[in-house]
Every structure is written in structure tokens, then in C-alpha cells.
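User: C-alpha cells for MFS transporter, please.
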Amino acid sequence: MPEHTPLDAPPRLWPLYVAGFAATYTFSIGNVAAPDIAADLGATPGEISLVLGSFTSAFATVLVLGGRLGDRFGRRRMFVLGLVGGILTAILAAVAPTTPLLIAARGIQGIAAALVMPQILATIQATSTGIRRARGIATFSATSGVGTAAGQVIGGSLISADIAGTGWRGAAASIAVICALALAGARWLPATRSDRRDAIDIGGAVIVGLALASLVFGLSLGPGQHWSWWTLALLVGGVVGLAAFWRHQSVRERTGRPTLAPPSVVRLTPVWAGLLMALTFFGGFGAFMYEYSVLTQRHLGLTPAASGFSLLLFVLGFVLASASIGHIMRWWGALTMERGACLQLLGLVLVAGTCFFASHTGSGAAWVWWVQAPVAFLGFAQGTQFAPLVSTVMSEVPHSVAGLTGGFVSTAQQAALALGVATLGGLFVSLADVIDPVAAFGWVVAAQGVTAVVFWGLARRLRHEAQQD
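Assistant: Done. Predicted C-alpha cells:
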């Protein structure tokens, strides 16, 4: 089916939204299960960071390549292949007997998710136009965002339920059920592919994959190894690898060969600004979820279910903002993301304030109750940032690179989740060992305020560029 063919039955897009939910739900399950995985497998904090980071870094590495494979071999075909892989790898992760095998299973799981995710936006774009396309993109953004938050609640409940003694393994297996639901509806999706048959830049995928893996492994294992020479070498190797990837892409574009990330596209203001916005937002978002799970379970003694349900107001706030984003954007207009960033900064300040108050008064356990209103406010604020991000960025780039730009933003999202856990998450784990854990959480949340300020500045720059055009 050619890319411009309109979709006759919009409800048939539901498998795409289920799959988008599953991809982000998979990351969130790792967050809430982290303390139980550590206890069951004897994993160190660095290894737990790798359990989370192996999924997201592999996801980020293969995302754009997955989009190119869908363009060439058929998007529905890659969608189905990725979902089958998601089912199998969820089962592998659920039965993994050791931490290294779990890390490997999660990495392969990330590759499977990367075959699915780019087909979602590409199929929406290829089969719809105008308001229908905008509504499809907004729905995808909302469901994938809700998946990240809902994983904390659903995953925590499954772990505490301990069905047939499965614990965290039952939560890991639940991913297979969601993938199977999306797979069951895949036959109703239209079969689309690109009219172009460009070659695929495998070399670029390998270079960027090794670079991201080096950064994630170095940042995750560095604190536990007291920043030994080889962890620092991994970080240097990651930075050098990213520079080599950029040069590789520049040479290929200059010589007319296919690229994964054409520098001429990345240099467009909406693209590089959107990438940095995704990096700052999701880096903080992923770290917050991880830190909250560790704090409430390991240090405050909550069960996984209690930990997950204590974020229910956060989830509801996020869902409310996502569901109302059309009305919010009509009210705030082009200022939506900037005002959302201001609300996020205020929410982070309120959360940090409750942490410092609870630590000062010695009422750490009561903090979980005191923080409910601030986290609900924070969830709403982040919903007003996340929901319009992809649609705003993609509306500002030429139609010819819109699909590629969506892939870039999704890549940045996954890379940021891994790097956020490894950096801010690692900082929290280190601080919690030397100061009051609730205070440590407060300091890291306060530090996250920098990401809200950066997001605001980039959203402002993007708005000014759009007004000048």
C-alpha cells in the first residue's frame, strides 16, 4: 500500500497503541522489580542499572535501523516480527537464572521493541492525513507515556501478588501477555512500506550501538568499581564512538550513500532541539521512577504493590494531562511545553521540599503520604510536556523527514532512560548510602530541576523558530 493511502477504519490502529504501551511498560517493570531482582539474583546496584540500561540502550541503538527495515521489507511484517520477539524475550527474562543472562535477555528484548516502535508512527503517517494523523500521533504519545507510569502500579501489584511463587518473574512475564494482545490485532493493520528501496547502513548501527553500550556500562559500573581505569575507558570509548558515528554519517551523506542519521536533517532546529528535549525530559523521568522504587522498597520498607500504588496519583495526573492535552493546547497554544516545564520545576521543588522536611523531622516513613499531592501535580506537569512533544516537533519539520525525525525522538527517549538511571539513579544510590535516603532523594530531585530549565529553554527556542517561519 502506498504511503499516502488514507486509513479507512481508524479503530484498527489499536494494536499500534497497545504495542506502544508495551514498549514503555517493559522499561517500567524493570524499575519496580529492581529491588526484588537484586535480592533474588544477588545483583549489585551497577548490575541492576545494566538490567534496565541493556533494554533501553539496545532499544535506542536499533530504533532507526528498525524503521529503515520496516520501510524496505514492510512495516506490518516488522511489527509482527518484533512482537513475536517481545513475547519470547519476556519469557526468557522471566526464567533467567543469573544476572548476566537477565541482562542479555533484556538487551534482546530491547532489539525486539526497536523493531516494533518505529512502525507505529510510520504506519500512522502512511495511512492517515490531517486531523486523523494528529489524533493518531497524540494517542500514541499518550499510551506510550501511560505505559511508563502504569508499569509501576501493575508491575508492583503482580510482584506482591506473587502468583504461584513467581514474584518479579511473573511481572516480567506479563509483558508477553500485552505483546500477544497487540499481535492478535496485527492482522487488521494495513500493510505499508516505502516506495524507496535504500540500502541499510549496518556499519552506522554497529558504531552507535557500541558507543551507547560503552556509555551505559561505564556509567552503571563506574561507582561500584570506584571509577577504575577500565570504566573510565568505557566512557571515553563511548564519547569517541559517538564522534566517529557523526563523522561516518557525514561522509556517507556527502558521498550520496544511505545514512541512519543524516547530519543535514539533525542540523534542523526542530530536530536537534527535539532530540535534546527528549533527552532532558526522559533522562529525568526514568531516573525519578527508578529512584522512587528503590527508596520506597529498599529504604522505607514498602512492598512492591504499595510502592506502585503510592504512585497512583502521579499516574492519574499524567493520564489526566494526556487526555486533556487538546484542550490544554487550545488554552495555552504555543506556550504549552514551556508552561509545562515551569509546572514540572515547581513540582520537583515541592517533592524535594517534602523530602527535606521529612528528613529534618525524622519522619521518613510518613513522607510517602506527604508527597502524594506534589507527585500528583508533578505527574500532571509532565503530561503537559510529554504529550505535545512528538507532535510539535514533527509538525515543524519537512514532511519528507517527518518519519525519520520521529525515529530520532524515540531513539533519544530510550537512550535518555538508560543514561538517566545510570547517572541520576546512580547518584541517588551512592548518596543514600551516606546520608538519610529521603534527603538523598530530595537532593537528586532538586538536581533534576536543571533538566526542566533546559527543556523550557529549548521549547522557547523552538517556538521562536516557528514564529519566524
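User: Anything notable?

Assistant: Confidence is low (pLDDT under 50) at residues 1-11.
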